[in-house]
Input
Amino acid sequence: MSGAEESTAARARPRRAPHPAGAPLSETRRRMETARLLSRARASRGEARRRYEDEVIALNMRVAHEVARRYHGRGIAGEDVDQVAMLGLVKAVRGFDPAQGEDFLSYAVPTVRGEIQRYFRDAGWAVRPPRSVQEVQSRITSAEAELYQRLGRAPQPAEIARYLEVAESLVRDAQSATGCFTPASLDAWQAEAAPEDAPANRLGGLDPAFATTEARLALRPLMQALPERDRRIIELRFFAGRTQAQIGDEVGVSQEQVSRLLTGILKRLRESLAA
Output
């Protein structure tokens, strides 16, 4: 939001529509007064034009708040949504051309709604999914309501995809991304559960095998090149955790021989790895 737009929205907030106190304008009167003021603004310049535009904003604040109210309770503070709606109203007033002969609300309502949706898309995601997922997610909500009435049950992803004419995989991605907007805290716990049952306490720790992944990848072709008995000895010692005595019993040699064999095998692997 630019400084000029913030200033205009702030000036508009406390203003009153130009009508007698205690006598709210009817819908028809408000539309007529809006059209009159916009025509005067169009014919004016400078401070006079800004004054007429401010009066239009004050006159139509209720419309902006009605649009904003539909987006309350969706994870963003209502005050922020109201402010963005006012910015959309300011943009609508400045961008509307009365010469086109279109009713102002037909232009203003989509403008305000679009401003709010862009704000949700750009600032509302705690974990931001791809743009395609963000855009289709709001459409899915409307589609589900419509299909539920038609089918008498919750629609399947494939049915939603056909209704919206999008790929089923995109619908599934959007449905699984629901928690990206307001993800649950890892420290949250239910009132009836013990504190130690918080999600963070159920997460796994670091896998120690991650630290050896690079070494395993480098050693794999070298292991495959070893004679079968040598490879078996290495597997039993370092992958199965067998003792030298257990290895000796399995391959038919003494514990002392296993020790010497391990020393020789490891030496050859180091040399091959260095080479």
